Amino acid sequence: MEAYVSRFVDRVTIHVAAGSGGNGCASVHREKFKPLGGPDGGNGGRGGDVKLVVDPGVHTLLDFHYRPNARASNGKPGKGSMRNGAAGEDLVLSVPDGTVVLTPDGEVLADLVGAGTTFVAARGGRGGLGNAALASKARKAPGFALLGEPGEELDLVLELKSVADVGLLGFPSAGKSSLISVLSAARPKIAEYPFTTLIPNLGVVTAGETVYTVADVPGLIPGASQGRGLGLDFLRHIERCAVLVHVVDCATLEPGRDPISDVDALEAELAQYTPALAAEHGGQDLASRPRMVVLNKIDVPEARELAEFVREDLEARGWPVFLVSTATREGLRELSYAMAAEVERYRRELPPPEPARVVVRPTAIDDSGFTVEPDPDVEDAFIVRGAKPERWVRQTNFDNDEAVGYLADRLAKLGVEEELAKVGAKPGSQVTIGDMTFDWEPSTPAGVAGVLGSRGHDSRLEGSDRVSAAERKAARQARRSSLDEHGGYAGSEEEDDEW
């Protein structure tokens, strides 16, 4: 039978995709004696968001390691009789307390601390308007509706930084897991070989009226800040700690090891890994964090003698030093109360918590800003960039001539056609907006969209006698085919220019 091995994952890349908005409906109300009762197409529903929410019951990012793709549901399309489509359901992803959300480039988007903290990772697309909402004096019975917008889709990096008050530092087999097991109710794995602990252990300690949490950093060795051992993966877990405690093995038989050199080696690693703490910790770095030293395993006679010998040198640095034995529990009571006192002092020095203020930054969806610039890859072609024209193109059904005419009216009112003329665009020039490229044909002035025809058609698009790009391409191919078949002259450059 295959054994199940639990894993701890504290950094993972996920792909989130919000739901797309539903399409609007193009419908005409019909009933007895009222065959054309007016447009009654409903709007499409909004797509669902993808949200990250801190859940106290979640302690690892393991679920995202196995299921890195998350997609919210789409909005439903609108229907006739003024029925709007249902909005897509939001997808809520539970993350551990202390999760940091970053872009693949390392930009911090959110620092999720505290149960219930929510971050909208991807926003759903808006639903398209139905033809009832598009009706106007000039276009009383639109034969088209707008398409729903696609939802946001992006990659995110989730990084877990444990929220603990006391961080235990030490070489492998220094006794950090044993210390947590006797100070708290935690039961970490303990064995007589290095790198026993492969995940950060957390324990809750009660000392008098003070309750605080203790966490260890697995397997720190010299070079951990450059990626050796396990240190680089777990150093981030001490960034939020109020107190850092060195746990020193005084009974080690390894050559070249002694309590002073062990502490100096780990301090050198911390000096090379000093990212600034989050704002809730006063912006201090690891170098300014209070230190304590625990000389462990004094139940061994030689270890007790060594601990007494180096105690004065460590205290000269201004650090409290405690001699303890996790086997006999000697000195543990004094240690737990001393750590509680440091945690209480740190908590008193923190600024009083302020109620969270909700900052609303609405997106300027009506911003008319856009730019027109020459296309660097195509001659006599132009690119239009701007949130509004790009959104209008995504909402347009290009299989419907009336919808295309409506888009042309909107672009003309925005001033896109006027700007294209200023930069030198000519009829037939290629214009790219978003993912759509088309031949520019100057339309009638904005506001003269009331040239009515059959539903779904726009007479302005049908009345152009200019040869389209597709027709020009077909003519060139035909002439080349004629040359290949007969090997003779099949036209002149002047004729090509006329086309």
The CATH topology of the largest domain, please? Rossmann fold
Q: CATH superfamily membership of the largest domain, which one?
A: P-loop containing nucleotide triphosphate hydrolases
* Largest sheet report: 6 strands, mixed
Any guess at the CATH architecture of the largest domain?
3-Layer(aba) Sandwich
Number of helices: 13
Residue stretches low in confidence (pLDDT < 50, at least 5 long) are 1-8, 188-198, 221-232, 275-284, 444-452, 489-499
Q: Which strand order spans the largest sheet, edge to edge or round the barrel?
A: 10-11-9-12-13-14
Strands, total number: 18
Q: What does the radius of gyration come to?
A: 34 Å
Task: Explain how this protein is built.
- The chain is an alpha/beta fold.
- The protein has three domains: 11-160, Spo0b-associated Gtp-binding Protein, Chain: A (Distorted Sandwich); 166-349, P-loop containing nucleotide triphosphate hydrolases (Rossmann fold); 371-482, GTP-binding protein OBG, C-terminal domain (GMP Synthetase, Chain A, domain 3).
- Helix content is 25%, strand content 18%.
- The chain has helices spanning 62-66, 131-134, 176-183, 231-234, 259-272, 301-315, 332-349, 387-394, 401-414, 416-422, 459-462, 469-486, 493-498; strands at 11-17, 50-54, 69-71, 91-95, 99-102, 108-112, 118-122, 153-160, 166-169, 202-207, 210-216, 243-249, 291-296, 321-323, 371-374, 381-385, 430-433, 436-439.
- The strands form four sheets. A six-stranded mixed sheet has the order 10-11-9-12-13-14, with helices on both faces. A five-stranded mixed sheet has the order 3-1-8-5-6. A four-stranded mixed sheet has the order 15-16-17-18.
- A hairpin with a 6-residue loop joins strand 15 and strand 16 (381-385).
- The longest helix has 18 residues, at 332-349.
